[in-house]
Write a structure and sequence with these properties.
The complex is a heterodimer of chains A (411) and B (157). Chain A is built from 18 helices and 9 strands. Chain A has helices at 18-23, 28-36, 39-49, 61-66, 91-98, 100-114, 128-143, 174-181, 210-214, 216-222, 224-230, 261-268, 302-307, 326-340, 346-363, 371-382, 390-404, 406-410; strands at residues 77-82, 118-123, 148-151, 156-164, 205-209, 238-245, 251-256, 278-282, 316-321. In chain A, the strands form 2 sheets. Chain A has a 5-stranded mixed sheet with strand order 3-4-2-1-5, with helices on both faces. In chain A, strands 7-6-9-8 form a 4-stranded mixed sheet, with helices on one face. Chain B is α+β, with helices and mostly antiparallel strands and 157 residues long. Chain B folds into 2 domains: 7-66, NADH-quinone oxidoreductase subunit E (Arc Repressor Mutant, subunit A, Orthogonal Bundle), CATH 1.10.10; 78-156, Glutaredoxin (3-Layer(aba) Sandwich), CATH 3.40.30. Chain B contains 7 helices and 4 strands, in the order ααααβααβββα. Chain B has helices at 7-16, 27-38, 43-53, 57-66, 86-90, 93-104, 146-156, and strands at 78-83, 117-122, 134-136, 139-141. In chain B, strand 3 (134-136) and strand 4 form a beta hairpin. Chain B is elongated. Chains A and B meet through strand 4, strand 6, strand 9 and helix 14 of A and helix 2, helix 4 and helix 5 of B.
Chain lengths: 411, 157
């Protein structure tokens, strides 16, 4: 099945202006929502579609919105999470640079459903050029009455601001993102309270990933049943898979949720680079536990990957071939989390840097008996003992790697 | 303390305040503006930003030291940020970093004596389909080979 919803007009390079987007049917969903549907009806449709978050956690967006206390006049915020930092993930970059208006229309629909009038797009600092492009798109939309005040003449207002991060992976975590937006260090907050009740500037806040929002126009135009029919039972729609590593054709592929990992790599990605053999795959960004070649028949949806002991995460697929020693993979993972741990929770702060030190010595040729078991012990000691998911996000891939490739790592 | 920023920079920082109910929220965008203009954020810049946002200088210092994109010292005129993450490593990123190391005779973190180049290793740049990659200023350069890196450097000299 060849479906292209999020990436439809993306095939023609340069088609990202408002005019192009409208010519392709853009902002029809916003018009439909603002003229024919009540906010409650928009919310109900998105809930029925069971749209699962595309940022990593897979939490249903409609359910998240429904946690916002009802009430028309109180101040609420929308934060668009464009802090794409998960290694191996580049689909939000792809969407924002080629389809800024699809994301803006999605933001408008979310804001309308929840009754929000201010949105911040928190974009990672390195995406400076994309941020500028996004600001141009916002200005275009304001000029045409699609954002700003009195949108489409319906009296609804939404101001959207682009806010650049400054190089901290942790700010992709939603409460760290809120702290960062408030001008503080990106240290995750203790939950509860969840952002839906106490979020940005202490107000109820919705935080949604870029790709999650980009799915909304389709759901509003064609309905929840259409959306569900595109994917699998509990995980509808398409996904933007970022495919990279030792594959012939790396890139972003829009495919139905539940597409087999093997097909993504071998059919869509053209298989491995010439002369290389598959050794392992990281299926959902660096935080997702690694899979062996025997495990790649797994369907790429949230539940199937969880059942396989990994996670769909951000859909960032990193293909590892036989020329790559596993100690190198271990070294990159350990280095990344030691660098990105915010330092707030001791198990994560100490655990990631301790593991990193052991791995560095191993990589330099100084392996000692028991190293691998010690890494597993330290990673296990981080699990479930931190405020935010970074502790687990570091521990899980490390544990998976040392378990599945113990023999090679001990050689 | 009165701000030592030129009027244009001051104005642009003050304009940011309209976006938020709280002045401190303008800190990251303000620091980006300052760094673009000055090249780095030293104690003097920190104090000036604190003054404009009506916050304590230590709050500015916290942000400057927490976020890796902010620099407290001047860098070379061209900042070469080489991705050292997994996909780039699989596609030969180490070879690119080694090449730059030899070519510029500096280690990651260092600046060439003529002040032209600063070389740093960074985490994933979100362009893994173009691995191995590096960023110069805001511009990404992908599918690198030692030869294409040489060409790139020549274009900058």
């Amino acid at each position: 099945m060849d479906v292209k919803i999020l990436s439809r007009p993306l095939d023609q390079a340069g088609r990202r202006s408002l005019e192009d987007y409208r010519a392709a049917g853009g902002y029809a969903a916003a018009r439909k929502a603002l003229t024919e549907l009540t906010p409650a009806e928009v919310l109900a449709e998105v809930k029925a579609a069971n749209l699962r978050g595309r940022g990593g956690a897979g939490f249903p967006a409609g359910l998240k919105w429904s946690f916002i206390p009802a009430g028309g006049s109180s101040i609420k915020y929308l934060c668009v999470n464009a802090d794409e930092g998960e290694p191996g993930t580049f689909k939000d970059h792809f969407l924002l640079s080629r389809q800024p208006h699809l994301v803006l229309e999605g933001a408008l629909l979310a804001a309308y459903a929840v009754g929000i009038h201010t949105a911040y797009i928190y974009i990672r600092g390195e995406y400076e050029i994309v941020a500028r492009r996004l600001e141009t798109a916002i200005a275009e939309a304001v000029r045409e009455g699609l954002l700003g005040i009195d949108i489409l003449g319906r009296g609804f207002a939404l101001n959207v601001y682009v806010h650049r991060g400054a190089g901290a992976y942790i700010c992709g975590e939603e409460t760290a993102l809120l702290e960062s937006l408030e001008g503080k260090r990106g240290l995750p907050r203790l939950k509860p309270p969840f952002p839906a009740s106490v979020g940005l500037f202490g107000k109820p806040t919705v935080v949604n990933n870029v790709e999650t929002l980009a799915n909304l126009p389709g759901i509003i135009l064609h309905g929840a049943d259409w959306f569900l029919s595109l994917g699998c039972l509990k995980d509808g729609g398409t996904r933007l898979f970022s495919l990279s590593g030792a594959v012939a054709r790396p890139g972003v592929y829009e495919l139905p949720s539940g597409t087999r990992l093997r097909d993504i790599i071998f059919t869509h990605g053209g298989g491995l680079l010439p002369g290389r053999t598959l050794k392992a795959v990281i299926p959902g960004g660096m935080s997702a536990p690694i899979l062996t070649p025997e495990e790649i028949d797994v369907p790429m949806d949230c539940d199937s990957l969880a059942a396989a002991g990994s996670m769909l995460g951000s859909g960032g697929i990193i293909v590892i071939d036989d020329s790559v020693p596993m100690i190198v993979v271990l070294d990159r993972i350990a280095k990344f989390y030691a660098h990105e741990s915010c330092g707030q929770c001791p198990p994560c702060r100490v655990g990631t840097s301790w593991i990193r030190r052991i791995v560095r010595r191993m990589a330099a040729g100084g392996r000692r008996p028991g190293d691998v078991d010690e890494i597993a012990r330290l990673a296990g000691a981080m699990m479930g003992r931190t405020l935010c998911p970074l502790g687990d996000a570091a521990a899980l891939p490390l544990l998976g790697l040392v378990r599945k490739f113990k023999k090679e790592l001990e050689e | 303390m009165t701000s030592r920023f030129p009027e244009s920079l001051r104005t642009r920082i003050l304009e940011l305040l309209n976006r938020f109910p709280d002045k401190k929220a303008a800190l990251l965008p303000a620091l980006h503006l300052v760094q673009n203009e000055r090249g780095f954020i030293g104690p003097e810049e920190e104090a000036a930003v604190a003054d404009l946002l009506a916050i304590r200088p230590i709050e500015v210092r916290e942000a400057v030291t927490f976020y890796s994109m902010f620099r407290r010292r001047p860098a070379g005129r061209r900042l070469l940020q080489v991705c050292a993450n997994l996909t780039c490593t699989i596609r030969g990123g180490e070879r690119i970093l080694d090449h730059l190391r030899r070519r510029l005779a500096i280690e990651p973190g260092g600046t060439t004596p003529d002040g032209r180049f600063t070389l740093i290793e960074v985490e994933c740049l979100g362009a893994c389909d173009q691995a191995p990659c590096l960023m110069i200023g805001g511009t990404l350069h992908g599918s690198l080979t030692p030869e294409s890196v040489d060409e790139l450097l020549r274009g900058l000299e």
